[in-house]
Amino acid sequence: xxxxxxxxxxxxxxxxxxxxxxxxxxxxxxxxxxxxxxxxxxxxxxxxxxxxxxxxxxxxxxxxxxxxxxxxxxxxxxxxxxxxxxxxxxxxxxxxxxxxxxxxxxxxxxxxxxxxxxxxxxxxxxxxxxxxxxxxxxxxxxxxxxxxxxxxxxxxxxxxxxxxxxxxxxxxxxxxxxxxxxxxxxxxxxxxxxxxxxxxxxxxxxxxxxxxxxxxxxxxxxxxxxxxxxxxxxxxxxxxxxxxxxxxxxxxxxxxxxxxxxxxxxxxxxxxxxxxxxxxxxxxxxxxxxxxxxxxxxxxxxxxxxxxxxxxxxxxxxxxxxxxxxxxxxxxxxxxxxxxxxxxxxxxxxxxxxxxxxxxxxxxxxxxxxxxxxxxxxxxxxxxxxxxxxxxxxxxxxxxxxxxxxxxxxxxxxxxxxxxxxxxxxxxxxxxxxxxxxxxxxxxxxxxxxxxxxxxxxx
Length: 459
Ligand code: ARG
Prior knowledge:
Bound molecules: arginine
Protein name: Argininosuccinate lyase
InterPro entries: Arg_succ_lyase_C (IPR029419), Argininosuccinate_lyase (IPR009049), Fumarase/histidase_N (IPR024083), Fumarate_lyase_CS (IPR020557), Fumarate_lyase_fam (IPR000362), Fumarate_lyase_N (IPR022761), L-Aspartase-like (IPR008948)
Structural class: mainly alpha
Strand content: under 5%
GO biological process, one term: L-arginine biosynthetic process via ornithine
Distance between the termini: 58 Å
Oligomer: single chain
CATH topology of the largest domain: Fumarase C, Chain A, domain 2
EC number: 4.3.2.1
CATH architecture of the largest domain: Up-down Bundle
Family: Belongs to the lyase 1 family. Argininosuccinate lyase subfamily.
């Protein structure tokens, strides 16, 4: 079957396989709402500048309304032979509105049309993702607020380092997701420029009003160069990069949830609805959701690499390569939306086990730094204090006890500066309370950060 939209200069039809190979309607039909939105704005402008009659505009509007209804109710017949979402909708419009439908494409090309559609669609997705990042942050803030006095060991190298409060640990993720939202909104600025009017690549000979279309569609500005407008997908790559960072943060959180939930650690429990059992081992409760999120991170990062590579060899202006931008973009947006939705719900339901956290913090000499700091405050240079405490730790390791198990007299064997008040700094509470400055883990600082995050998030 010959292609109605462009087969005029062809002698033979494309093979069935080539048709399938080149068609995108199976996936780009998802852009239909934004395609119609763009077409209506274009038609309104054509009428405003006197290119399209009022009757034609009315016929296009009525036809599009019918098409919206047909697509929403599942009656619309998507045809592979019509290649993509644009030609499918245009063909149906022409069937409904006659010549008016054929006039819609005046001063426009599918090249600027698709670039417009994808930006309109991406803008909506970004807004959704930013909203979900806010919800996830609020869920974490809620749990943080209840745990400003819950002490667990903080780790470096996955070795016990210093005690921190659990709320502080969760607020670290709030910071990451806040930056992610900021990044998304920054990408949005560059997504929100109007390509329409660039036509195929050089602009159009019709007296179009691009600013008017930009206003109608809510774009901040028109793309200033027609070649650039139809050909670059850097905005999509930026979005994928920002999305990759969201997933990297989700993945790190997932890794921690998995470790914390391991029975060997037992710091938290996740609600049953985010876990699955084993068909062979009756005792299992596996953290499938965080594991899958960690896995899906690879997929999003992979799409980023795919899109960068898609772009790198393309000469100006539009090339069909760009049709390959859609599946990765759709998959990235879907993965983020689903993941963030689930994580907001899952984070809200984290069941904290403070006794297990505390028991772990009491092992591993988490307050050794506090003892060194104590000696420094009594006049010992830090390097010497470090050395003295390291020897005390070594002795404890040999005896199989903790620093706090040593008496003041025993501690004094490592430094004459150890006073009767030394034991107080070895407590977990003393250690966290001492880190009392902006960004530190002291409970009152964490409470202040909880309040500040809440104010920022408007929750
Ligand atoms: N389906 C195409 C895409 O996604 C639309 C633009 C096609 N333009 C063209 N000249 N064949 O990029």
